Structure formats: structure tokens, C-alpha cells
Task: inverse folding
């Protein structure tokens, strides 16, 4: 009985509507605001820090692309996909950075699920100042957060033209999440295994080392699983955004059956969806799709499919 009452990690949502007030209304003021916000967070590496890229002058565009990276990654992990999409659409681009990412692996110790939802909501508010219609492109856990934003669109007041989910995380593959959901695990596991290793191979160069962590504190893993569980179970009554899935059936990182179940849920709520299933080459990453560093052959077809989906009447 005592075991069953033990602590578990859960997710709590920020006040989404209030976060919009943190963002300047004038597009020309957004780069300085974002730079100050990143400095305050300790994200001083411009290679991985959040950024704004204007299509031309510092003015609104018809579309704006909001790109969100995945757990332990940065915007560089899938670069230059977001730039390619923005170029095709003639759009401004907001490349987000989630709390604890792009600094050092240890910096993730203080990040919790609410931190990442806050970052996503603030990024959407900023993107809505940069364009008339937001195209949210979320990779892995960034896709989970993109779905959360779409379900809260009435609260944010941001016009979302489309949501693009690339290898979205609606459940991590394997049995580890089941174990970590048990009571007391958030107390016991960090004492036995303070860090978990994502890649035991040394990075091929310093650029790879900066764009994604090879390890992270195991405490962050509990918060990621709590985030995914919370979002996967959320109501979809206000989810209206047309949604495109880009997925590899042999993805070893996320549970593809849960991705399919998510898309079926969207359709059952009347959401317009489309799917692009990718078969990766032997030397390409099966999870980080359409990346210049790990799956370059997919960039053109994926970008074309996204542009067609966004522009479809």
C-alpha cells in the first residue's frame, strides 16, 4: 500500500493566455527581446539559441514558420529543414529553444514539463507577431508540444494555418517509460542512475556535440514522459488545425502505434489530416528525418509536401 502511494512525476500547464503579454507586439523589436531572453536563460551559443529569421525586412509575412526541436536536441538537429520551409512559403521563421537545451546537459536538471510548455506558448505568441498564419513544425517532443499548442489555440488567439508533426513523440518506444511511471521511481532511479546515455558513440565533430546531447540527467526523462502522457490524454474539443504527419514506420525512438492512434484521434474529432510515410536509406537517421546532417536526401521531398499541404485550399 505504501509503495502504491509513492510520488510520481506529473505535468502541470502554465497560464497560456497570460504568456502572450511577455512578447512585444512590434516585429522589429522581437529580435532584441529574444536575444535578451536567451541571455537570461544562459543560452549564449548562437549556434543553438532560439532565433528569428526574417524573410526580408522586419515586417509581418502571410505565413510564419514556428519550428520546435525535440527532447535533448536543438534547432540544428534538423537544420536546414525549417529554413527550407520558410523559403518556400516566403515566411518569417521563429526557431524555438526549449528550456535546458542547447547549453550543457547539466542545464536540463532544472527544466520541467511546465518549462517546455511555457517556451512553446511564448514561441507561438512571438510567431503570431511575425505573420498572419502560423505553420508549426514540431520534431519528436517538439511535435508533442505543437499538438498541445493546437489544442489551446482558442486561449492563445493565434491563427494556426497548419501543424506538421515529424516523428512526433506520443510515447517512447520500449519498456522504460512503463517502469519510470511506477511510484517512487522518480526518487530511486536518479540515485541509482543519475544520467541516461542517448548515444554512447563519440560525436563525429564538435558541431554534432553542440546540436544534441549525448547524455542528460535522468530526472529530465521523468518530466518528458509526464509531458507526453499529459498531452496524449488531453481533450481535443478545440483542436482545429490541419495536421500533417511525417513518419518512418521503423522509427526506433517513438512508439509508432501511438503516433497512429493520435492521428486517428484527430480524425475522430473532425481534424483534416494527411500523412507522409518515409523509408530511410541505410545511412540515414530513422528518427531525425529530413535533416541536412543525418537525412539530407529527404529535405526536398519533405519540404515540397509541407508546402503543398500548407497552401492547399
Result:
Amino acid at each position: 500500500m505504501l509503495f502504491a502511494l509513492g510520488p510520481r512525476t506529473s505535468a502541470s500547464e502554465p497560464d497560456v493566455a497570460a504568456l502572450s503579454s511577455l512578447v512585444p507586439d512590434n516585429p522589429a523589436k522581437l529580435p532584441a527581446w529574444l536575444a535578451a531572453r536567451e541571455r537570461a536563460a544562459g543560452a549564449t551559443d548562437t549556434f543553438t539559441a532560439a532565433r528569428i529569421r526574417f524573410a526580408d525586412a522586419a515586417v509581418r509575412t502571410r505565413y510564419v514558420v514556428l519550428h520546435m526541436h525535440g527532447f535533448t536536441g536543438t534547432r540544428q538537429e534538423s537544420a536546414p529543414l525549417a529554413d527550407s520551409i520558410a523559403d518556400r512559403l516566403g515566411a518569417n521563421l521563429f526557431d524555438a529553444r526549449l528550456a535546458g537545451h542547447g547549453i550543457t546537459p547539466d542545464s536540463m536538471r532544472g527544466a520541467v514539463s511546465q518549462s517546455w510548455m511555457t517556451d512553446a506558448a511564448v514561441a507561438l505568441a512571438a510567431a503570431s507577431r511575425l505573420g498572419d498564419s502560423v505553420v508549426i513544425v514540431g520534431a519528436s517532443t517538439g511535435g508533442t508540444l505543437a499538438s498541445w499548442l493546437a489544442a489551446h489555440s482558442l486561449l492563445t488567439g493565434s491563427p494556426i494555418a497548419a501543424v506538421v508533426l515529424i516523428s512526433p513523440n506520443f510515447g517512447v518506444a520500449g519498456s522504460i517509460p512503463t517502469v519510470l511511471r511506477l511510484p517512487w521511481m522518480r526518487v530511486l532511479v536518479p540515485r541509482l542512475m543519475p544520467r541516461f546515455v542517448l548515444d554512447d558513440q563519440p560525436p563525429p565533430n564538435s558541431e554534432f556535440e553542440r546540436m544534441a546531447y549525448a547524455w542528460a540527467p535522468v530526472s529530465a526523462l521523468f518530466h518528458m514522459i509526464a509531458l507526453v502522457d499529459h498531452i496524449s490524454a488531453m481533450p481535443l474539443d478545440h483542436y482545429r488545425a490541419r495536421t500533417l504527419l511525417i513518419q518512418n514506420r521503423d522509427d526506433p525512438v517513438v512508439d509508432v502505434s501511438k503516433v497512429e492512434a493520435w492521428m486517428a484521434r484527430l480524425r475522430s474529432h473532425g481534424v483534416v489530416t494527411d500523412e507522409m510515410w518515409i523509408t530511410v536509406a541505410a545511412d540515414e537517421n530513422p528518427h531525425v528525418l529530413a535533416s541536412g546532417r543525418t537525412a539530407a536526401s529527404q529535405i526536398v521531398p519533405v519540404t515540397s509536401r509541407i508546402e503543398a499541404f500548407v497552401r492547399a485550399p
